[in-house]
Amino acid sequence: MDAPPSRVYRALLDPEAVAAWRVPDGMTCRVHAFEARVGGAFRVSLTYDAPDAAGKSAGRTDTYHGTFVELVENEKVVERLRFESDDPQVAAPMTMTTTLTAAGGGTDVVLVHEGVPDAVPAADNEAGTRMALDRLAALVVRM
Fold this sequence. Notes:
The chain is 26% helix and 38% strand. By secondary structure, it is α+β, with helices and mostly antiparallel strands.
């Protein structure tokens, strides 16, 4: 990304920034709660724009909640989360680790998902993550 790690790190922990970037195309994001500290809780909903789409939580919405497990300033954010769903195949706990490394005048960002439920197609998770990272890259250039 064409921004220093400090700027990218801020965008990972700012609820308004998260609402702007952590959403795939064809969805909108609402951040309900966001305590950016180790042990702090967050809750986020992603709602499909298409009226006939089915969400993992209710209606057209995928809501997830979790906590911040590790925060290393300008280097790493580790989150433990799960979808809010009555379906245990969807509501399994996941870990998302975002690592930032200075590269030239910018930042290499690596986002690793662990424990993604089998009910969430890997291709869909990959595509959504790439879209979100593209939004993050565009956002941090403007910050």
